[in-house]
């Protein structure tokens, strides 16, 4: 598998570390225990297109948001994950 | 004729070098072959038909094929540490001095005791593992399994370390091509001419594929001449790389392909400094699979008799190797292509005994061939094979219409049609589709970027192979952005291909589907009767196709028989999932150079070489080698050395290389705010010039890591992590910085490798430091108080970072110098410290002193403990949000009966405490219901003159003074221990502040 890092170009899988689903957003400080519980533990098991976090530890150390099809492993987009998991103001 | 005379070698022809004879040994006997032979062809030339015994029944077996699909002719190649079991004689290239031995026979190939297994054949049927030896249960391990293991099996592993090297390499190209037959060469020509970067992989040591055996005319030239021209043209292209002895065995995501190059398998021993094999990962924009097709057997009684051979293999031996597998050959075919073997036999001056053709009719050309050659054409099927000492002797034929005939022959060529090699195209769970006209599965799509061409795509004619290959090569190059002139396409005629499917001839006697795993047609039928009808069940129940050949000659026949007994069509029955590798790949090749001391990278501390000079004993901690203790002459064991080091620190001064800690510079106006969010305690409030111990949680509330962080400037913190978590904490902090808190203006820089860091500890620390640090620096308690941290100048002008932190509980500093000065610093500390009796200490003494001080470390930060469990709950700020705050407040993580850190010491002072011992209340029975925790860390405390430890125990802190049992079933120990304060030494901390 190969990932096109937006900073480094196309690189081999071994340079990256997988984290998981990039959908959950860290709840605001006052969001309460249930919201944090969901954030920490609950994940969808998606057969199809998912956006997920990958860390380019063997390269630029950027956290990336990779859009990947779990059925075909096809990667359709890679972008910097900057701010992707940040708490929404007022959430 | 005598053995070694190559009695079955033709006088002329073949791609062998008759000027280069090679001697070799098979089962201890000497033979001769020629350069260009495989072991199999050399055995054929020497008249050897019996080459092994079968897996379960120990039946005599010969050579069935001439390629990597071979199920029978497996040998142990080489000897001693280089012995390779289950090596296919059909692909092993002959070299001078080759040694091979047949497998699975005892005491000898001709007389094999275990062939009595045939008498017990009824118990070795499909699923025999699951149903025969089930009772009585205890007999299984004691009797049945060892007996079966001895009787069934293949070759023996060398049993010692492989003396050879293996390599791993990457390659990048536009087009990778698997196979160099007509389709592969045509694809390479088209792609190469267009300017594409091409890699052509051929598993054989000669390019040409089936052309080498079957010849033909291409562009008006004999095949051999055309091949030579094509190879010369490709060789002259700078961006075409031809890789012989290289099998493309797998396809992975993103256009990554696996290939195994047998760099030096054709030599007795690899030349010095060269590898035996190289594992390639090839990244290609496009891939053309021109891997050809595999001729398939017809299943009939006695089809495993030595002398029964695939028709195409027989042509290979005769035409390519000038070796005759038999003198009087019978041919059993259901298709036009098989007849080529009769033509080849006649051309080579061999007798054709008969052609048994299962089709209703035979072409006029072949009829006249038969009458010219003086052999009968029998319409029907082979129903039995009579075996003499030398293999095939007489063949029984069931004629169409019911009559019987017998044919005397010493070789039987079989052709059941051709199966395209659909492996590579199907490795991403692709399912090949059935084509009725050729009665075979062909690729139905392929992984992105891949296309099959030629016989691998079901195009069996030579003209079609060239056309498909050339077009696929041109298209692949075009897709890869190369548009050069591809020139003209090589042209050849297409042969007619007619076939009447025939899979299995009913008859008496064992008819083998999978010869390597001894699976018979009746095993397949039995599996169906017992309900294992799905092909995946069939495979696992009978082990059909699960041997080292992965069923290349047997899978389709197996499912065809299953289709017949279930009354379904073959496409309805379907195929099993195809998985790489296409051929067996040695684990050594996957490991490459990553074995033994190179299994992983080794990290050396800056003072490593100095420590080695001192005779330090090193311990592996992750990738690091750390000095564990420094033994001195006369010390009887590690404990004596470690105790001395601890006493020296506590009474004088010692130093320890702590460079392995993770070190991160945190810069930016929001650095403090950032640290507030990742640590449970506050860092924005930390004064410049001060250090603070920090604890990080995971988002689920469990402790992640700890360490001291110092504020060197308003916008600059220096953070340390544990050795184990250095990389992970960096990754975690980058996640927090980039993904969670992008609004903070902060930067992280890993400086773990940039700084050499030493802990200097003991009451004489200041005396020693004064010799190192510039006299202008104030190291007094007022000028450099406990938890102070700042840059200092050393004598000589070098800038260093100095931290007044203590892990040992003594008056202590940690000093950081640029890593390149680390070794000099160690030497300097020894020199300057001499008057004070300075003592280097290792990780063991470090651990003793941290346990004496009750500091938690790896055994307590074990991924299950909370800050509260560690006695650090009060550090959790209530004034800010931080990672893990909310989840740490969950009921289960805050209940009072959690297991918490407590001090533990045996009531008998002479008793040794062991970590891992379980804590059981007095008077209770040891067991999970009474288990209240366990001992996590232990040491012999020189200060207390007894073994002490830390443990995680239910309500431990509330139970100081209570006596409980330390129960250690692993070591058979059970003794009383007392709970005590976890800070055994200097509990009020006066020494470190002094």
From TrEMBL, chain A:
InterPro entries for this protein: SoxD, SoxD_sf
Pfam family, one: SoxD
Superkingdom to which the source organism belongs: Bacteria
Single GO BP term: tetrahydrofolate metabolic process
Molecular function via GO: sarcosine oxidase activity
Protein name: Sarcosine oxidase subunit delta
Species in which this protein is naturally found: Mesorhizobium atlanticum
């Amino acid at each position: 598998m190969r990932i096109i890092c937006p900073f480094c170009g196309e690189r081999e899988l071994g340079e990256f570390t997988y984290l998981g689903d990039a959908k959950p957003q860290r709840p605001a400080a006052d969001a309460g225990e249930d919201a944090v519980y969901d954030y920490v533990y609950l994940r969808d098991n998606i057969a199809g297109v998912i956006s997920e976090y990958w860390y380019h530890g063997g390269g630029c150390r950027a956290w990336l948001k990779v859009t990947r099809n779990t059925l075909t492993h096809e990667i359709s987009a890679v972008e910097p994950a900057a701010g992707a998991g940040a708490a929404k103001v007022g959430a | 004729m005598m053995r070694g005379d190559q009695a079955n070698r033709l006088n002329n022809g073949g791609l062998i070098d008759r000027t280069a004879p090679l001697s070799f040994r098979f089962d201890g006997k000497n033979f001769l072959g020629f350069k260009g032979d495989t072991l199999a062809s050399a055995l054929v030339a020497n008249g050897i038909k019996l080459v092994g015994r079968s897996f379960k029944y120990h039946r005599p077996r010969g050579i069935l094929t001439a390629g990597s699909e071979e199920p029978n002719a497996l040998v142990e190649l080489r000897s001693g540490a280089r012995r390779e079991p289950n090596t296919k004689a059909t692909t092993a290239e002959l070299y001078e001095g080759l040694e091979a031995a047949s497998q699975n026979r005892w005491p000898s190939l001709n007389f094999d005791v275990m062939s009595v297994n045939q008498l017990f054949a009824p118990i070795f049927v499909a699923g025999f593992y699951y149903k025969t030896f089930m009772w009585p249960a205890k007999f299984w391990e004691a009797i049945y399994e060892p007996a079966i293991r001895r009787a069934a099996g293949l070759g023996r592993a060398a049993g010692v370390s492989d003396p050879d090297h293996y390599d791993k390499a990457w390659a990048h190209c536009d087009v990778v091509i698997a196979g160099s037959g007509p389709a592969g060469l045509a694809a390479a020509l088209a792609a190469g001419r267009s300017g594409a970067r091409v890699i052509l992989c051929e598993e054989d040591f000669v390019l040409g594929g089936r052309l080498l055996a079957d010849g033909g005319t291409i562009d008006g030239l004999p095949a051999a001449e055309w091949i030579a021209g094509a190879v010369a043209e490709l060789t002259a292209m700078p961006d075409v790389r031809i890789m012989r002895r290289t099998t493309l065995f797998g396809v992975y995501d993103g256009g990554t392909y696996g290939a195994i190059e047998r760099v030096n398998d054709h030599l007795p021993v690899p030349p010095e400094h060269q590898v035996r094999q190289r594992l390639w990962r090839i990244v290609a924009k496009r891939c053309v699979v021109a891997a050809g097709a595999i001729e398939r057997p017809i299943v009939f009684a006695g089809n495993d008799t030595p002398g029964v051979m695939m028709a195409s293999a027989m042509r290979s031996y005769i035409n390519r190797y000038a070796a005759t597998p038999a003198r009087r050959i019978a041919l059993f075919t259901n298709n036009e292509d098989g007849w080529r073997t009769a033509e080849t036999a006649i051309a080579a001056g061999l007798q054709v005994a008969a052609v048994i053709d299962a089709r209703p009719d035979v072409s006029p050309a072949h009829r006249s061939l038969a009458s010219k050659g003086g052999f009968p054409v029998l319409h029907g099927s082979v129903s039995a094979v009579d075996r003499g000492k030398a293999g095939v002797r007489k063949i029984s034929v069931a004629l169409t219409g019911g009559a019987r005939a017998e044919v005397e022959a010493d070789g039987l060529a079989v052709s059941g049609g051709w199966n395209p090699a659909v492996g590579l195209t199907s490795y991403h769970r692709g399912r090949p589709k059935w084509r009725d006209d050729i009665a075979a599965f062909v690729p139905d799509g392929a992984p992105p970027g891949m296309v099959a061409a030629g016989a691998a795509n079901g195009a069996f004619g030579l003209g079609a192979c060239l056309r498909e290959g050339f077009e696929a090569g041109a298209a692949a190059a075009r897709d890869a952005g190369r548009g050069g002139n591809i020139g003209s396409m090589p042209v050849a005629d297409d042969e007619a291909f007619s076939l009447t499917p025939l899979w299995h001839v009913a008859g008496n006697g064992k008819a083998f589907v999978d010869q390597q795993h001894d699976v018979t047609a009746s095993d397949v039928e039995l599996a169906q009767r017992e309900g294992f009808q799905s092909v995946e069940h069939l495979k696992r129940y009978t082990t059909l196709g699960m041997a080292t050949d992965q069923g290349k000659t047997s899978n389709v026949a197996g499912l065809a028989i299953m289709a017949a007994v279930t009354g379904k069509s073959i496409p309805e029955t379907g195929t099993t999932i195809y998985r790489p590798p296409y051929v067996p790949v040695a684990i050594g090749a996957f490991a490459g150079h990553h074995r033994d001391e190179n299994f992983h990278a080794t990290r050396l501390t800056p003072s490593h070489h100095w420590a080695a000079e001192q005779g330090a004993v090193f311990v592996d901690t992750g990738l690091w080698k750390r000095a564990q203790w420094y033994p001195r002459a006369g010390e009887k064991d590690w404990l004596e050395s470690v105790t001395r080091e601890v006493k020296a620190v506590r009474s004088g001064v010692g130093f320890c290389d702590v460079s392995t800690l993770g070190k991160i510079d945190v810069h930016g106006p929001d650095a403090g705010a950032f640290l507030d969010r990742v640590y449970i305690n506050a860092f924005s409030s930390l004064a410049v010039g001060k250090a603070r111990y920090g604890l990080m949680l995971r988002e689920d509330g469990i402790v992640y890591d700890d360490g001291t962080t110092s504020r060197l400037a308003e916008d600059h913190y220096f953070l340390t992590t544990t050795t184990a978590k250095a990389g992970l904490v960096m990754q975690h902090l980058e996640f927090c910085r980039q993904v969670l808190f992008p609004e903070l203006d902060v930067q992280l820089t890993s400086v773990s490798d940039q700084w050499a860091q030493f802990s200097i500890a003991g009451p004489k620390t200041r005396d020693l430091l004064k010799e190192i640090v510039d006299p202008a620096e104030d190291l007094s308690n007022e000028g450099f108080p406990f938890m102070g941290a700042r840059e200092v100048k050393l004598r000589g002008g070098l800038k260093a970072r100095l931290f007044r932190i203590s892990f040992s509980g003594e008056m202590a500093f940690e000093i950081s110098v640029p890593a390149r000065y680390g070794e000099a610093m160690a030497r300097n500390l020894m020199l300057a410290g001499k008057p004070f009796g300075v003592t280097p200490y290792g990780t063991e003494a470090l651990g003793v002193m941290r346990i004496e001080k009750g500091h938690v470390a790896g055994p307590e930060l074990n991924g299950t403990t909370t800050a509260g469990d560690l006695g650090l709950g009060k550090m959790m700020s209530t004034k800010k949000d931080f990672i893990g705050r909310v989840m740490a407040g969950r009921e289960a993580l805050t209940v009072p009966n959690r297991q918490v850190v407590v001090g533990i010491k045996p009531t008998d002072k002479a008793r040794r405490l062991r970590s891992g011992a379980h804590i059981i209340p007095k008077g209770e029975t040891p067991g999970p219901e009474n288990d209240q925790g366990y001992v996590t860390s232990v040491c012999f405390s020189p200060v207390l003159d007894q073994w002490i430890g830390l443990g995680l125990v239910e309500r431990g802190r509330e139970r100081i003074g209570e006596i409980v049992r330390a129960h250690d079933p692993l070591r058979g120990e059970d003794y009383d221990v007392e709970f005590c304060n976890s800070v055994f030494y200097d509990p009020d901390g006066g020494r470190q502040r002094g």
